[in-house]
Design a protein that fits this description.
The chain is an alpha+beta fold. Among the domains are: about 1-95, no CATH class; about 180-275, Immunoglobulin-like, CATH 2.60.40.10. The protein has helices at about 1-15, 20-40, 45-55, 60-75, 80-95, 100-110, 120-145, 145-155, 160-180, and strands at about 185, 190, 200-205, 210-220, 220-225, 230-235, 240-245, 250-260, 260-270, 275.
């Protein structure tokens, strides 16, 4: 149809030797025919129909072009209302098609909480979160450092094994302090009695000028924080322990075989760079 109209327009312009009135009439006919061609190519219903065909074929780019053209040329036509709705459909389809990782899936669900793919997005997010957590846990196991485990439980604070991981952190801190070349010598505790017991009680007094942190790694794994000038008591199962203490930015470490009641009073001897009692 468009081709026939174009041929007719050409024919009108190729007719020679016509009067001025005839020429004006031909000009009007030409303009009318051009408008028909324009309507056939870019009419609201035609653009909408073409856009729907592209949309059905999932050719979102061309569908978007047709709908945008419809809104530009026919903003007041009834078809523009549907064009606006279909553009939103295309935007969601494109957002979903580009949602391949955790961040983009979470963004899709934020923008379209009740969208066409919201249920599928939720399932994928849960699956990817589990995979991510598993991967990070295996990485933490491999590195086995206090900083890695601390970062891990910061990201996953509701894990069922959180207390076990906290003990891993204490173990790692003790080992890291003991391996450090700047670590000072931690003196042994003073026995309060020499009777053997399956449980040990350690009374620790902090006479340093800072908060004192003492970590025990052995049969039990525990950490105790003691404010400056205070005394705290810790109960442990008897056995061999690696002990690491931190006060005033310095670390100290040692080993003990605990099997009863003990007392310790810690203070910093700066001239000898060691902690004592």
């Amino acid at each position: 149809m468009i081709k026939k109209l174009l041929i007719l327009i050409y024919a009108l312009f190729t007719i020679g030797c016509v009067s001025e009135s005839s020429r004006d009439e031909l000009k009007e006919k030409n303009e009318a025919l051009q408008r028909q061609v324009e309507e056939l190519k870019f009419g609201a219903s035609i653009l909408l129909s073409d856009a729907k065909k592209f949309l059905e074929a999932k050719d979102f780019l061309h569908a978007q072009e047709k709908l945008s053209l419809l809104l530009e040329k026919h903003p007041d036509k009834p078809e523009s209302i549907e064009a606006g709705r279909l553009l939103k459909v295309i935007e969601e389809e494109q957002a979903w098609n580009n949602s391949s990782d955790l961040a983009s899936l979470e963004n899709y669900l934020t923008v379209y909480p009740k969208g066409k793919y919201s249920s599928e997005a939720s399932d994928k997010i849960e699956e990817l979160r589990i995979l991510k957590e598993t991967s990070e846990y295996e990485s933490a196991l491999s590195l086995n450092s206090s900083s890695t485990w601390k970062s891990f439980i910061l990201n996953y604070p509701t894990r069922s094994d959180i207390e076990e991981i906290k003990k891993r952190i204490i173990d790692c801190e003790v080992n890291e302090i003991m391996r450090a070349t700047t670590t000072g010598v931690l003196p042994t505790s003073t026995p309060s009695s020499y009777e053997y017991s399956t449980s040990s009680s350690i009374s620790i007094t902090n006479d340093t000028q800072c908060e004192l942190t003492v970590r025990y790694s052995g049969v039990d794994v525990e950490v105790i924080e003691i404010p400056m000038g205070s005394t705290r008591t810790l109960n442990l199962s008897s056995g061999n322990y690696k002990i690491a203490a931190t006060a005033c930015g310095s670390n100290y470490a040692g080993t003990e075989n605990l099997h009863g009641a003990y007392s310790s009073k810690y203070y910093i001897v700066t001239s000898r760079n060691r902690i004592s009692y």
